[in-house]
Amino acid sequence: MRYFDDIKVGDRRELGSFTFTAADIKRFAAKFDPQRFHLDEEEGRRSLFGGLTASGWHVGSVCMKLLVADFQRQAQELAARGEAVAIWGPSPGFRELRWIRPVLAGDTISFASEVLSMRPSESLAGWGILQGRNSGTNQRGEAVFSILTTAFVPMRETK
Amino acid sequence: MRYFDDIKVGDRRELGSFTFTAADIKRFAAKFDPQRFHLDEEEGRRSLFGGLTASGWHVGSVCMKLLVADFQRQAQELAARGEAVAIWGPSPGFRELRWIRPVLAGDTISFASEVLSMRPSESLAGWGILQGRNSGTNQRGEAVFSILTTAFVPMRETK
């Protein structure tokens, strides 16, 4: 990944998209979120969601999957250019996860990541704290998912 | 689930526990969070975490799994006593997810859910808004996971 010095507020990366099939939705739900509207089309139709709906944890996990793929793409691009790859700190968690609209079977969600704010860490010299938003939008351009993230990112001099 | 009227601040439910095996950790990571310390014991040992570590999304999804099982247990208990079962609204999301300590292969995490605050909804007559915390503690009594949740819960008169 990139160093703190090479990132600026407003930077945005498209993370790619994922189509939630009925089979995917049911498989995740059976394992982690076996509520009826995540397991059965007819129960989904009869629920507030209006159709078979992905678990919110499934949507968040798919966003993570695309984020990791993007990290790996960034690292390969940097390495291909002969540049050093920064190792970010472990994530302490996140704030304000919002499931804005249901993700129904067949929906294709495009995820993006943007930088909202940046500041040097007060407690850890040579590190910066980056706040960002990861978001998901469906094939009709409607926001479905948003999460505010915090990351610890090394500065170049900490190498 | 229970009605708003039957819940009070401080109510706590033990949701049960889950042991994260190396196989579970790798299976989830391969699908949703393929970072090296989630996929390989040796890479985990060399990382800041000190061992093969569960993806934070895996920990959150397991908490959801135990929460749903507890919802179903509550519904059965109410039905067995001949009481009405409340249908809660869909979750709008949550706040402040914290991954406090790594969950390593072999760790057994006990989850609990407690009610932090309650108020009537201003916009939706007959509904209340409940704020709570779901948390996870390992076999040494150390907090590993915490998430603040919001739920829309019907009052008895909305039946």
Could you walk me through the main structural features you see in this protein, from its secondary elements to its overall organization?
The structure is a homodimer of 159-residue chains. In chain A, a hairpin with a 5-residue loop joins strand 4 (127-137) and strand 5 (143-154). Chain A is α+β, with helices and mostly antiparallel strands and 159 residues long. Chain A has helices at 22-32, 36-39, 41-46, 56-80; strands spanning 12-19, 93-99, 108-120, 127-137, 143-154. A five-stranded antiparallel β-sheet of chain A has the order 1-3-4-5-2, covered by helices on one side.
Primary descriptors:
homodimer, 159 residues, alpha+beta, 5-stranded antiparallel sheet
- Order of SSEs of chain A, N→C? EHHHHEEEE
Structural class of chain A: alpha+beta
Strand order of the largest sheet of chain A: 1-3-4-5-2
Which pair of chains has the greatest number of interface residues, and how are they split between the two chains? A-B, 28 and 28 residues
Unreliable residue stretches of chain A: none
Radius of gyration of chain A: 18 Å
Shape of chain A: elongated
Main sheet properties of chain A: 5 strands, antiparallel
**Share of residues in helices of chain A:** 25-40%
Measured by DSSP, the beta-strand proportion of chain A falls in 25-35%
Quick overview of this protein structure:
Helix content of chain A is 29%, strand content 32%. Chain A has 4 helices and 5 strands; from the N terminus they run βααααββββ. Chains A and B meet through helix 4 and strand 2 of A and helix 4 and strand 2 of B.
